[in-house]
Specification:
This protein has 20 helices and eight strands. It folds into three domains: 4-109, Alpha-helical ferredoxin (Fumarate Reductase Iron-sulfur Protein, Chain B, domain 2), CATH 1.10.1060.10; 126-262, Rossmann fold; 269-386, Rossmann fold. The protein is an alpha/beta fold and 392 residues long. Bound molecules: iron/sulfur cluster (SF4) (2 copies). One iron/sulfur cluster is lined by residues 30-32, 43, 71-77, 87.
């Protein structure tokens, strides 16, 4: 049913697809390949499917669409590809083409694309993927003594999950307050960073959200933006400059980067001993910026925290929830998360600590589903518990 003209985004990067030599190095650290074992689920398999679609010897079925969406965009395949192919770019192009085909009513039978569309519509209408009301974005402020200045040098870009699920937004707020950081937020003027629209191929919405957020940050006059969500960080720091073809006039950093600066300057001091053996999980979106050491440095500074590391041979791997997979195929996501939790339990961890609301949600669902005796804790919760209040 499909022809080359159905895939304009893939056609533009055809040379990247035909460069694949089918060696399968990309499979080694792919969490999807490890879990599903089918060739079509692997990055090499996806490349073969896409070559078939472009060259007219493959057909789009629900199974192939599902395979193309069974990806967390963790980026491990790209790191391992000896041919140097930007697999992320290729997979993203395929999603843009599938999204557009669905909108041209050419794939309206696809259950996967119907789900993608539903989630993208929420972003278009409510500016968050959860379907909550935009005016309730500041719901996390309820019961908190939130008095923020109208403008400040630093904006805390709260993000959808921290804002609507409330806990992470409150913890970040309390830590920043305790450290006397001069910051504010965009309040109800903030909209989703656009991560899900971006990963689901809805280019128009991703661009509108990027333009809107950048203009609001610019209006505020802030030069620095802090995120507690690594997904927001990826969008603001890595994707917005590409989407808008212009680097925004602010620097975006993750809260762990700011807190490491405070730690090194002696301004982040801990006092309460927490007595906990933990494993730290690296959120994929932070690894793209080489943020490995900062969270570990903070953890090592908290009295009583015993930081356990997995064996050196083990590559850090995705929680299973990235790239929108948790919203599309929660069962697969939590099977992947279960493997990581079991590894953490094997080395004696009482808790798995991370600093990403999406990773935390995936791991929490997996621990519950499989009844695993491990706590999932956000790094900021540990920081707040042990923090020594700095006086002016
Ligand atoms: S590692 Fe690169 S070249 Fe080898 S199969 Fe995977 S995508 Fe193709
Ligand atoms: S991005 Fe990650 S999940 Fe997706 S194919 Fe590559 S290694 Fe697998």
């Amino acid at each position: 049913m499909n022809s080359k003209t159905d895939f304009p985004n893939l056609s533009k990067i055809r040379e990247k697809i035909i460069e694949c030599v089918k060696c399968a190095f990309c499979k080694a650290n792919c969490v999807i390949s490890k879990e599903l074992l089918w060739e079509s689920a692997s990055p090499r398999g996806k490349m073969l499917i896409l070559r078939g679609l472009l060259d007219g010897f493959g057909t789009l079925t629900e199974k192939t669409i599902e395979s193309l969406f069974n990806c967390t965009f963790c980026g491990e395949c790209e790191k391992d590809c000896l041919a140097g192919i930007s697999l992320g770019e290729v997979f993203l192009a395929s999603r843009k083409d599938l999204f557009n085909l669905n909108h041209e009513n050419k794939l309206s039978e696809s259950a996967t694309l119907q789900r993608v569309d539903l989630l993208c519509q929420r972003l278009q209408e409510n500016y968050n993927p959860l379907g909550n009301l935009p005016e309730e974005r500041t719901i996390w402020e309820l019961g908190q003594d939130v008095q923020l200045p109208k403008s400040a040098e630093i904006i805390y870009f709260v993000g959808c999950m921290p804002a609507y699920y409330r806990k992470m937004a409150r913890t970040t707020f309390q830590i920043l307050k305790a450290l006397n950081v001069n910051f504010t937020t965009l309040g109800t003027d903030e909209r989703c960073c656009g991560s899900l629209s971006f990963f689901f191929g809805d280019e128009r919405t991703a661009k509108e959200l990027a333009q809107y957020n950048v203009s609001k940050i610019k209006e505020s006059g802030a030069k620095k933006v802090i995120t507690s969500c690594p997904g927001c960080l990826r969008m603001l720091r890595l994707e917005y400059p590409k989407i808008l073809e212009k680097k925004p006039e602010f620097e975006a950093i993750h809260i762990t980067e700011l807190l490491t600066e405070f730690l090194e300057a002696g301004k982040l001091q801990f006092q309460s001993e927490l007595n906990l053996s933990i494993v730290y999980h690296d959120p994929c979106e932070l690894t793209h910026f080489n943020i490995y050491e900062q969270p570990r440095r903070i953890l090592k500074a908290i009295p009583g925290i015993k930081l356990l590391e997995n064996s050196e041979n083990e590559t850090p791997s995705c929680c299973g929830g990235g790239g929108g997979l948790m919203s599309l195929n929660a069962n697969l996501s939590i099977r992947i998360a279960k493997r990581k939790l079991e590894t953490a339990l094997d080395i004696g961890a009482e808790a798995l600590v991370t600093c990403c609301p999406a990773c935390s949600a995936t791991f929490t669902s997996a621990a519950k589903e499989y009844n695993l005796p491990i706590n999932i804790i956000d790094l900021q919760d540990l920081i707040l518990q042990s923090l020594k209040k700095i006086e002016n």
